[in-house]
Amino acid sequence: MLPPAYPLRPTPRQPWSPMTDAEWAALAPLVQPGGPGRPAADPRRLWDAIFWIACSREPWRALPEALGRADSAHRALRRHARNGTLDRLMIAASPHPLSGGDGLETLAWRILRAIRRVARLLTMAQLLMAKRLGLASALPCAPEHLPRPHLAATLHRLIPSLPGARPALLRWMIALHDAIPGERRLWRLTD
Question: How many domains does the chain contain in total?
């Protein structure tokens, strides 16, 4: 049985601004460095750089020099996508009871946009977690274009409408097969 899902809702847009001390105090415990690689000299500036890119439509190379090197910020975001940091941030920015209301409300849009910027690197479980948490702003496409790994529910919904003729059954099976992987070509990492 699937866990309960929250209704999809977009997070209100916010313009980029450097994090306040209160925002950084709420974010810092969730983004502690871990795993391979040298930790950032100034993690707050690194996350400001990540959020600047997330809020803009600009490529990484357009990152202002005052926020550091673009390749360092991009590498750090990819590392956080793999080590579970983005999962913790996704839950913290969601209406999930485990989010704890840690004061990340003002950072929610920036966090979800950062997740969207690395959506191609996320696992299927991470994308489906964003969908089940109702985080529309983190998804790279409309939810119906995401892969559908939970076919049992889909099959039970579609089987009653199964026609008896063989050509129709074949067309139905082809349509089902085409629907499973989603439509990755429709993904957009920025608006």
Answer: 2
One digit per residue, the tens of pLDDT, for the chain of length 191 reads 455 678 888 888 988 899 999 999 999 988 876 656 677 788 999 999 999 999 988 999 999 999 999 999 999 999 998 888 999 899 888 877 766 666 688 899 999 999 999 988 888 888 888 988 999 999 988 888 787 766 656 655 665 566 665 666 666 766 776 666 666 667 776 66
3-state class (DSSP) for residue 150: coil
Q: Would 1 be classed as within a structural domain? A: no
Residue 56 lies in a domain: yes
Is the domain of 117 the same as that of 33? yes
Nearest to 146 by CA among 113, 165, 168, 124: 124
How far is Cα 80 from Cα 189, in angstroms, rounded to an integer?
17
Q: Which domain holds residue 72?
A: 21-139
Residues 65 and 27 occupy one common structural domain: yes
Q: How far is the C-alpha of 143 from the C-alpha of 140, rounded, in Å?
A: 9
Q: Do 147 and 128 share a structural domain?
A: no
